[in-house]
Request: fold
Amino acid sequence: MEGHAKAAPVRGTQSFVGVMAEVFKRPGLVGIEAGWRWSVGLLMLAMAFELWYSPYDLLLSHTPFQGGWSCANIIFDPSFVGVDVAGKMTWLWWFAPKYGLDLAILFLIWPVVSVLGRDSIFRRLDGGLRKMRGTLIVLGYLRALLTVTVLGSWAAGLLYISRWAVLTPLYVHAEPSYVPGFACLVCMTLVMFVVWCTVSWVLQVAPIMAMGRGLGVVGSVRAAWRSGELRGKLVEINLVMGIVKVALVVLALVFSACPLPFSNVETQEFLNWWWVGVGVLWVVASDYFHVVRAAAYLRLWQAYELPSSAEAAS
Reply:
């Protein structure tokens, strides 16, 4: 054969276990990921604490059927839950401007911090990548804008469904449509989840294109979208990681509920520490798989880009 041998086709998840092992052997990468995420996550917790203990909670609590959550209310009076949740979401929309400045500051800080963290991770995985922090910051803002748009659309859809299925029927003394409303919510969530996993990979791969080829914002996004046969493998990785993240949430919920059957013999302090421990494990596992996804993208790009570059040079 002349020149360099063409690389064998690489399946999207073919070397996934190998990438997981590589990241597992380098805990410093997970430490960097957890560090930059929680440098901003602490600000989010502070905002949530302020919202929870804000004087506005008195207004948020004045919703129909408000009287304290209990198993009896949830089982025998499901309208209590529907109206309470829908009513509080409506109030949150009214008082969102109060926290608009905090959210705007968080939106400005998050992409910058994430770029510093991800740049450090990528350069530890491949020391030959270029420093393109300006481009990566702009790409980070684009990704943050896309995330906020998707979450805002989901919240708006949830509010519309809750009004249509629960609030409006109750106000006219009709039977709420719990099953159709829940079915619509599940379908909407699944559709948005699939669309997100199918599209969001572009802005996650674009930083690799920028650092690997020295491209700008537009050029890196275009190169990521036009990645040819590599595109399907990147989508495959993104879908798998989306499913893994859902599985982590389910596992966290299951482990959180494990001590509940013994709540009559356990102290509240033990339950609180148990839940804190489950939360910490979930955070570490989530950050670990975030690094795995970034490393998998980089290794796939290397598997296809570097042999192609060698062939072009020969």
Notes: The chain has one domain: 29-304.
